[in-house]
């Protein structure tokens, strides 16, 4: 989070939101987390292990993907939540790839759909800290989580380059974790500077 948000200039004056701490790049839009999950009890426990295990959750796949709507803490959705939604309500509701305007991404373990449960971090460090605190205290990442994708886009006006960063943490059903990073850098403006 320290690499995304800055609050003051070198002289102590407040900055406008958006610049990275080194002031060489500007964050386009806002960073967000996107979680992909499998449905609860998406596989069967082998008979020999039923005395040791109550449930099991499958590997990620498009047919095992959880696309439900939940209340905070992955609780079943209540009527009052629809009329008085909590602060991070979108993080508990599935969004399709069309709604998010995203494409599938490939990690080490699997290819993940473009949809998911999205938590936007906002434009300030304070908002991002609050979102992360609410997600952590309500177990946003649990046994059904198969991937958390962090998506950030920046623009560096000095180099005239855009960078789209996709950082994936993949969670295995066996409790293993894989990290995957994908950086796409492009020059979208042919000319830099004024004429």
Automatic annotation (TrEMBL):
InterPro entries: Polycystin (IPR051223), Polycystin_dom (IPR046791). Residues 26-184 form the Polycystin domain. One of its GO terms (cellular component) is membrane. It is a multi-pass membrane protein. It is found in: Membrane. GO terms for molecular function: calcium channel activity. It comes from the Eukaryota. Keywords: Membrane, Transmembrane, Transmembrane helix. GO terms for biological process: detection of mechanical stimulus. Its main location: membrane. Pfam families: Polycystin_dom. Belongs to the polycystin family. This is Polycystin domain-containing protein. It comes from Desmophyllum pertusum. The lineage of its organism: Eukaryota, Metazoa, Cnidaria, Anthozoa, Hexacorallia.
């Amino acid at each position: 989070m320290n690499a995304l948000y800055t609050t003051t200039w070198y002289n102590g004056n407040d900055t406008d939101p958006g610049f990275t701490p080194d002031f060489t790049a500007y964050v386009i839009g806002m960073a967000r987390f996107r979680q992909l999950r499998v449905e609860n009890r998406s596989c069967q426990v082998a008979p020999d292990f039923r005395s040791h295990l109550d449930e099991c959750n499958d590997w990620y796949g498009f047919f095992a993907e959880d696309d439900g709507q939940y209340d905070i803490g992955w609780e079943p959705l209540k009527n009052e939540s629809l009329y008085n939604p909590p602060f991070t309500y979108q993080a508990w509701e599935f969004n399709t790839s069309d709604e998010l305007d995203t494409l599938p991404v490939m990690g080490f373990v699997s290819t993940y759909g473009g949809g998911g449960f999205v938590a936007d971090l906002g434009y300030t460090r304070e908002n991002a800290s609050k979102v992360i605190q609410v997600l952590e205290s309500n177990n946003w990442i649990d046994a059904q989580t198969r991937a958390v994708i962090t998506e950030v886009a920046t623009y560096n006006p000095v180099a005239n380059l855009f960078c789209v960063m996709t950082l994936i943490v993949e969670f295995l059903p066996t409790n293993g974790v894989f990290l995957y990073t994908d950086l796409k850098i492009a020059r979208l403006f042919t000319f830099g500077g004024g004429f």
